[in-house]
Amino acid sequence: MLLNTIKENMAKFIQNNPQNFVEELDMMQIWDQPLMGVASASDPLWEKLKEPNVIGPDHLTPDEWLSGAKSIISYFLPFTEHVRSSNRSKGLPSKEWLYGRCEGEIFNNTLRKLIVRLIETAGGKAVAPALDERLTVANHVSNWSERHAAFIAGLGTFSLNYSLITNLGSAGRFGSVITDLEFEPNSRPYQEIDEYCTKCGECIDRCPPLAITKKGKNAESCSKFLDKMLKLNKPRYGCGKCQTAVPCEYQNPTLI
Ligand code: B12
Ligand code: SF4
Ligand code: SF4
């Protein structure tokens, strides 16, 4: 019941909230309707994420973020066709993508706060790790990974360039909220961590600093390129060439 209320409120928010529209770009809409999944806080995968070859011991479990945690609500916000198609050229990121990355994340934070508020109004406790002062990112690794939360909640799998591919593709952003209320978890319609990636290799040629190879993505080289983009486009940055003009841009390529 509460989950439906959350879904309905998210849908209305995406349609009506002014933060989802960019005035400077002719009221461009940033996000389309999201996908949502629920993971159980007692899923054994949360402990597995602490293994050094998965994320590492600093990654916090839901219970470490919120004592008594029962469920994790995870969602994927897909970029609109307008934002995605603008970034299909090669080379530098489009202006629309830069706004999508930066103004889009401001909207994403407001959406996280909306979910927290709805849960608290219903008498539950809720924490959005991305908004919590305990959140850290060190050496390109965070103590709360939105992608791994989405993987556990059944939303999609990793890929050659490490993007998480959902049934609405990879061009978008994730968010999550941990709560002590119990919701029915979603099943995971996959067995392998990269099952939705066909290994077509099309993202390899898209990457300006050649950070992607057949073996995976070099986070350092991607990060340096993003720093350059920040210098050129301050206060905005972004790239996302590996998520546009590729078969996994807006769909699950294994279902084509
Ligand atoms: C640090 C960071 C970066 C770093 C690199 C991170 C990395 N390792 O890839 C830099 C700065 C380079 C970066 C770049 C970008 N980022 Co970034 N970034 C983050 C951040 C803050 C933390 C990521 C993290 O800690 N990862 C942990 C490491 C360990 O993850 P990993 O290497 O991918 O994990 C591998 C292992 O776990 C392995 N594995 C091994 N064994 C097992 C076993 C199991 C069971 C599992 C599940 C996995 C597993 O599989 C994984 C993939 O190979 C997140 C936000 C957040 N807090 O989650 C956003 C985030 C990952 N970024 C995002 C985006 C959009 C981008 C960019 C496109 C930038 C842009 N907007 O233009 C680019 C390129 C994305 C790409 N191709 O991956 C999105 C992801 C969207 C998506 N579809 O995947 C996120 C989730 C932000 C968000 N709120 O949506 N990012
Ligand atoms: S472009 Fe192809 S290889 Fe690259 S992540 Fe998408 S499906 Fe995988
Ligand atoms: S975001 Fe850009 S630099 Fe980073 S891996 Fe994707 S294409 Fe390469």
TrEMBL record:
GO molecular function, one term: oxidoreductase activity
Residue ranges annotated for the 4Fe-4S ferredoxin-type domain, each copy included: 187-217
Name of the featured protein: 4Fe-4S ferredoxin
Species annotation: Methanobacterium bryantii
Lineage of the organism: Archaea, Methanobacteriati, Methanobacteriota, Methanomada group, Methanobacteria
